[in-house]
């Protein structure tokens, strides 16, 4: 109000991202949940990434459900959650999520790398 700026999604997203990076995950979750604009999948994705960095699987599960509600095709979020489940030895939850992905026809795209050696290009897929 002081500077005559409207609160746009980008402003909220920046604050939420800063809170998440600082490890204030619950505060970021509450902030996003109470925004004046509807949070997008990218806003929830930022918090999910912070949950992964700070190893907060409990909150990550809540965030993932919010994220999947607004962006059910977010492959990165599915992969991140699977990795978090695996890191915590929660194999059943990981398998359920993989099955959910399979039912939706979602597959992780393989990564490709190229290297040039003696004017010859070699490609690798993982």
TrEMBL record:
> Does S-adenosyl-L-methionine count among this protein's keywords?
no
Highest taxon in the source lineage: Eukaryota
Q: Which GO terms describe its molecular function?
A: RNA binding
Q: Which InterPro entries match?
A: E_motif, PPR_At4g14850-like_plant, PPR_rpt, TPR-like_helical_dom_sf
- PROSITE patterns annotated for this entry? PPR
A single Gene Ontology biological process assigned to it is: RNA modification
Instruction: Extract the signal peptide range.
Output: none
Keywords assigned: Repeat
Answer whether the UniProt record assigns the keyword Repeat to this protein: yes
Which Pfam families does the UniProt entry name for this protein? Answer: E_motif (PF20431), PPR (PF01535)
**Which regions are annotated as PPR repeats?**
74-108
- Name this polypeptide is given: Putative pentatricopeptide repeat-containing protein
Question: Which species is listed as the source?
Answer: Noccaea caerulescens
Origin organism lineage: Eukaryota, Viridiplantae, Streptophyta, Embryophyta, Tracheophyta
């Amino acid at each position: 109000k002081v500077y005559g700026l409207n609160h746009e999604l980008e402003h909220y997203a920046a604050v939420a991202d800063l809170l998440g990076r600082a490890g204030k995950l619950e505060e970021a979750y509450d902030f996003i949940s109470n925004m004046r604009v509807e949070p997008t999948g990218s806003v929830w994705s930022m918090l999910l990434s912070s949950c992964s960095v700070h190893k907060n699987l409990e909150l990550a599960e809540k965030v993932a459900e919010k994220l999947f509600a607004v962006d059910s095709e977010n492959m990165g979020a599915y992969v991140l959650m699977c990795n978090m489940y695996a890191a915590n030895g929660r194999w059943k939850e990981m398998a359920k999520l993989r099955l959910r992905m399979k039912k939706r026809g979602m597959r992780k795209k393989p990564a490709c790398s190229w290297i040039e050696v003696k004017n010859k290009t070699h490609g690798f897929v993982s």
